Amino acid sequence: MEFSEAVTTVTRETIIPMVSDTFLKGNVLTLRTLGNSKSWKSGYKYDIPFKYKKSTEGGIVGIGGTLDTSRQETRTKMEFEPQRIHKPVVIDDIEAAVNQGDERVLELLATECDSIAQDLTDDIGTYLYTGTGATGNSFDSILNAADDATNFGTYGSKSRTTYTSLKGYYIASIGALALSDLSTGYDAVEVGGVGPTIIVSTPTVWSAYESLLQPTVRAGYQTSGFPQVTRSGMVSSVNTLTGGDIGFNALWYRGTPFVKDEKCTSQKLFMINEKNFFFAGLELPNYEKINTSANNVNGPQALPIPKGFNWSGMLRSSNQPAEVGHMYLVGNWMSDDPRRQGQLTGITG
Predict the structure, then answer these.
(1) Residue 329 belongs to a domain
(2) Burial of 288 (0-12, 13-18, 19+ CB in 10 A)
(3) Residue 131: is it exposed, middle or buried by C-beta count within 10 angstroms (0-12/13-18/19+)?
């Protein structure tokens, strides 16, 4: 309906006091890794010592026997470097001036910061699945952690040919997903009876797995609802989420939650032990923290401030009538035991 100026000149529009995100995708694994990040306290590299072989010295000693006194080298260290990604927040002086007083519906700076933080999180989520590590200025990722040297011959600066215990599980050209594919991959990354803590794939592959379940199991999910994976754990259903928690639907495989992540690369499935795959964040001196928990913006999910998230504050621009702030995430993803990470690729359905 088109109103006349007799109405529009004396009547304001209704503005909803929140911003709806209609563009960004879900980011489940990013929520988990950043929400449970570790601190990168200092040092230009993050070193992880690891054991790559068993000592063969020693053994049974008979009466009057001789003791072995040699020592074998059985340990070395992986090395990871911090990476940095940023987004600018720009507020023009005129925009700041008009966004004042009774006519303001949303605070411009707070809304812009929340929106840019979502965009930064979205970029980070892409690197989580595509980062190539030592190849140029790129984050490491689950992509090169869960590899057997097929695509990444080194990990943490160490050759996977020399140090074969750094090989993850990798299988290509799966085709149509079968339960045997999952069982083979699960067995490969299960070490000492401890398997993956989460399985992540695309919505298409997630639905393909759902179709493999027995009808009684599918009916149970439809009746009781899907379990909900949160940043810090799981709850039985969406009805049991507590205030502020965001949950994502999960199926079960061998007691491990299987979730769909829209950021996951097409035709891939990852089996991840989150105790051995994590983000370490570096705090920059003289930088601030900012609450970007989506209180004012209806974003894809709310995140606690992750370690490594740095805010410069608003600074006077030298070449424009505006203030500019910069949001950074500094740190890297890494695995201290890549054997426990796996990926299945080429899944067509």
Answers:
(1) yes
(2) exposed
(3) buried
283-312 residue pLDDT tens? 999 888 765 444 333 444 445 678 899 999
Q: Measure the CA–CA gap between 187 and 194, rounded to whole angstroms.
A: 10
Number of domains in the chain: 1
| Rounded CA separation 244/30 (Å) | 17
- Whether 232 is covered by a domain: the verdict is yes
What is the DSSP annotation of 235-264?
Answer: ESSGGGPPTT---EEEEEETTEEEEE-TTS
Which residues make Cβ contacts (< 8 Å) with residue 317, sequence separation at least 6?
Answer: 90, 323, 324
Distance CA 182, CA 250 (A): 16
For 158-194, give the DSSP string: EETTT-GGG--EEE---BS--HHHHHHHHHHH-BTTB
In Å, how far from its chain's centre is CA 143? 12
Three-class DSSP category at 286 = coil
Tell me, what DSSP letter sits at residue 137? T
Judge whether 21 lies within some domain: no
Cα-trace Rg, the chain: 25
> In whole angstroms, what is the distance from residue 174 CA to residue 252 CA?
20
28-87, pLDDT tens digit by residue? 899 889 888 999 988 999 999 999 999 999 999 999 999 988 889 999 999 999 999 999
Residue 259 Cα to chain centre, angstroms: 13
Residue 20: inside a domain:
no
